[in-house]
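We close this part of the discussion by returning to an individual protein. Part of our work consisted of pairing the sequence of a single chain with a tokenised description of its backbone. What the numbers capture is local backbone geometry rather than side-chain detail. The amino acid sequence and the backbone structure tokens for this protein are reproduced below.
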Amino acid sequence: MADKHKILIIDDDADYRASTRALLEGEGYEVIEAINGREGIDRARSQKPDLIVLDIMMESPVEGYTVVQALKFHDEFSDAAEIPVVMVSSIKEDPTNLFPMAGDVPMITPDAYFAKPLEIEKFLECVRQILSE
């Protein structure tokens, strides 16, 4: 049997992490967690997940974008640069609309974006699609 896909959830909301963990484990994924960006970056490097589910607003209002930028563009974290990122946030506006003056800024653009509360079927379909690529 093939190894389970490993998903890292980075979010400061314990209830959200627990519910998302249960959802993803119910789909057969292995789930690891981090409560902030720094811990998330460390876990991404040490645990090498296949996908990251990332909140935007944690210790700062833009911490999620900082995590994406660090993982994708800092040499120190280059071993985690190819990990796909799905942002999930209470911010209803997609990052591409939130920062129109920046255009398509790869340093902060996630592979997918969902607003909380999750549309569960769409979220799971997105996760399946990313992990099958």
